[in-house]
Amino acid sequence: MSQRIFDFEPITLDQIRDYAEASGDHNQIHLNEDFAKAAGLPGIIAHGMLSMGLGSRALSMWGYDLSKLKNYEAKFKEIVRPGDLLRAEEVRQSHGQIDLRILNQNGIEILVASAKFT
Amino acid sequence: MRIPEKTEFPLRARPQKWVVDDIQIEKFHKALRWNTSILPPTIYSIFLSGVFEIVNDLKVDWKNLLHATQAFEYGEPLSVPTEGTAETVLKDVKFRAKTYWMQFETVATANASRAVVVRSKTLLLVKAESEMP
pTM (2 decimals)? Predict the structure, then answer.
């Protein structure tokens, strides 16, 4: 099986704000640069759930029927910052389970996920 | 960070009312830069405010968050619009390797059918501020 990949548009501040609005998660580490730095972060970071959502978008782009999704789980491994370029890669497909990961522009895994379909 | 006594488990958040409608779905599509009619499987993150409520009540310092995992188990397909209720509990906190392992479970049910729409498990690993709990 050839490895499937999907490249996302660069993560933007507007996108992070849009995700805060959609999810209701207005934690200031996602919205306020000074607050994020005071919390020990390099600056504003994206929501982990935004990355998990992008993973589901990749699954759909690869042709999987999300209406048949039974389980979807993710481990958040690294922070995502505005400007990051993310790429989803399908790692394994076996018995209705798809494993994927999302890497940043430096090749660092920011998320690993698994989706099970009925 | 305050560590709950064993007798406090499961520690419950206030039940959260939720609505999934076309407007909500469109907000997720926009945030994910996704031009689709598909229901985003992570739209259920709107049910997770109970996790944040408990985390804030226990005064967890986000600086000490080391890792997190999130799992959704999907139940009855969601028709749109649907109103429902989500209940979050902190099931347990374990202390291992200088780290608190906080296990949350959220169950979201549709008001009309009473069916479970999604069951969510959230695990947060929080660095201990001192050597012993």
Answer: 0.94
